Amino acid sequence: MIAITGAAGFIGSNLAHRLSKEGNELLLIDHPLNEKRRANLAGLERFRFSEHLAFLDALNTNEIFPDVIFHLGANSSTTETDWGLLERDNVEYSRRLWNWCSREQKPYIYASSAATYGDGSHGFDDATHPRDLVPLNLYGKSKNEFDKWALSEVAKKGKIPPRWAGMKFFNVYGPREAHKDAMASVVWKAYRQIVSNGEVGLFRSNTPDIKDGEQKRDFVFVEDCIDHMLWLWRNPHGGGLYNSGTGHARTFLDLVRAVFAALNREPRIRFIDMPAEISRQYQNFTQATMTRLRSTGFDKNFTPLEDGVARSVAEIAGREIRASEKRTSGDDRTRRAQ
Description:
The chain is α/β, with parallel strands linked by helices. The protein has a domain at about 75-180 and about 220-250 and about 285-305: Rossmann fold, CATH 3.40.50. The protein is built from eleven helices and 13 strands. It has helices at about 10-20, 35-40, 50-60, 85-105, 140-155, 185-195, 220-235, 250-260, 275-280, 290-295, 305-335; strands spanning about 1-5, 25-30, 45-50, 70, 110, 165-170, 170-175, 200-205, 215, 220, 240-245, 250, 270. A seven-stranded parallel sheet has the order 3-2-1-4-5-6-11, sandwiched between helices. Strands 7-10 form a two-stranded parallel sheet. The chain is globular.
């Protein structure tokens, strides 16, 4: 049995679908589901669902005994100001799962974040120790605190999970992120804006050294992130923190133009001022150093931005068509009943 926390979320649901297609038995863990998050699990077979606190209880009482835990659940709000909440959800919960995997000698793959790198002044190398990083927000701090704790456990040379990896996800995009709303990727937001009003708004640059729209990110397709996780679970390595990106930064203009191209439309882009609260913690450039993952033997090519965007747009459009047909069918049934 494979356990996935955050299983109805973006990366978690895509991982669940991949593993389900392989025929694996799944235990999916999350908060109680709303309609959008429940839709992310549509089509899955052979899975059980558990609420996230009940999952901890079941582990501790030996009611369940998963072969591996993929811990992708978290409070992912980059604007959260309650440190106690983040410490409980993102640090303490992660520790409890680590301790169980250490005790029972089961692999543990968990979500860290590229937000741990802060403004990038120390680079984006996963070989950099977390104690040398200064995240720009409390979410990034919570992820960094657990990374530091995990490495301290390893340094004690006591019992640790037999195979473990903290995944520093960069700017992930792809299917099944409609539920994220304001936290969704620019691909999803751009699609919605184009469909709604035919244009996309991007932030103006907040520094004279960078032109509007030429801020850069390491945009990584979600299926590539899943490739990284599954490789690190299934293949021997020394354990540690691993970047999950492409190693190639692209501009927001590149990304948005790819969305327009996927919709067969000419680009219409306008620039808007960046809110002060965002500007204070804004990363103008991210680019993952992928040397550590490659050193484990991972040699698969990354999905080109234009290809990943096209696949994402096709999935979003297809899902909206199916939802519309379902609503129409429901309306027809209602009218016939009347």
